[in-house]
């Protein structure tokens, strides 16, 4: 039972364009969502997060949108750069869960020069 | 500041052999976690430790044991390795709390023959 799903295994975009990575969840108890970025042979690194009391959070080129009614979040990268090429994982957790994260399967983003 | 360190980086085991994966963090974090990453499955939580002296099961604990040796160190033991435990193992640490960001180590790649 996959509570967090990333249905697109891969995405390819041109440098300078927008990258949109999507994530769906099934557990309505989740109230905090995170995106992690992972390069080959490295551990995941935190990118951006959003609380369920918000519907948008921005950090530089990265914006995360949350649609609670649809149980859907998305990560927008504008403009995309070749260095953004990596695997992106979304993760979810809920209050009182001792920080336990449920991860999606990951989406591999390739940004072409 | 080394962050989260893991040893070894790579290990080959035969079925039935045992081994311990080591993890240490120097960020004075209370919580520590062990995940495994498999193709198409994202990261799945094996065990976690909310604070020194406590451990608890995650999503996929079978076949593993853990020890929170002190605040810095959290080890993962495979008593009798099986081919299904071939995976990449990540250790992470973080402060407790809902907005906790987890910091990951570089991973241990384990192959069980």
Helix content of chain B: under 10%
What is the N-to-C succession of helices and strands of chain B?
A: EEEEEEEEEEE
What oligomeric state is this? heterodimer
C-alpha end-to-end distance of chain B? 36 Å
Rough outline of chain A: globular
Compressed to H and E, one letter per element, the order of chain A equals EEEEEEEEEEE
The count of DSSP E runs of length 2 or more, i.e. the number of strands of chain B, is: 11
**Average of pLDDT of chain B:** 93
Most extensive interface: pair and counts? A-B, 31 and 30 residues
Short description:
The complex is a heterodimer of chains A (113) and B (113). Chain A has 113 residues and is an all-beta fold.
Explain the overall architecture.
The complex is a heterodimer of chains A (113) and B (113). With 113 residues, chain A is an all-beta fold. Helix content of chain A is 0%, strand content 53%. Chain A is built from no helices and eleven strands. In chain A, strands 2, 4, 5, 9, 10 and 11 form a six-stranded mixed beta sheet that branches. A five-stranded antiparallel beta sheet of chain A has the order 1-3-8-7-6, with no helix packed on it. In chain A, strand 7 and strand 8 form a beta hairpin. The mean pLDDT of chain A is 94. With 113 residues, chain B is an all-beta fold. Chain B has no helices and eleven strands. In chain B, strand 9 and strand 10 form a beta hairpin. Chain B is globular, with a radius of gyration of 13 Å. The N and C termini of chain B lie far apart (36 Å). Chains A and B meet through strand 4, strand 5, strand 9 and strand 10 of A and strand 4, strand 5, strand 9 and strand 10 of B.
């Amino acid at each position: 039972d996959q509570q967090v799903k990333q249905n697109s295994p891969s995405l390819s975009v041109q440098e300078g364009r927008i990258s949109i990575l999507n994530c769906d969840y099934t557990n309505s108890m989740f109230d905090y969502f995170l995106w992690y970025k992972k390069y080959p042979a490295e551990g995941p690194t935190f990118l951006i997060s959003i609380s369920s009391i918000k519907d948008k959070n921005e950090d530089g080129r990265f914006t995360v949108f949350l649609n609670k009614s649809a149980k859907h979040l998305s990560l927008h990268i504008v403009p995309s750069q070749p260095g953004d090429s990596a695997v992106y994982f979304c993760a979810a957790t809920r209050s009182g869960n001792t920080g336990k994260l449920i991860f999606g399967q990951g989406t591999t983003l390739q940004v072409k020069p | 500041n080394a962050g989260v360190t893991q040893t070894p980086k790579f290990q080959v085991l035969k079925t039935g052999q045992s081994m311990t994966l080591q993890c240490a963090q120097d960020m004075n974090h209370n919580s520590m976690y062990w995940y495994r990453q498999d193709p198409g499955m994202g990261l799945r939580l094996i065990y976690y430790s909310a604070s020194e002296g406590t451990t608890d099961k995650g999503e996929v604990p079978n076949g593993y044991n853990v020890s929170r040796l002190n605040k810095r160190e959290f080890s993962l033991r495979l008593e009798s390795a099986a081919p299904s435990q071939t995976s990449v193992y990540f250790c992470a640490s973080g402060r407790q709390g809902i907005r906790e960001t987890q910091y990951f180590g570089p991973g241990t790649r384990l192959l069980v023959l």
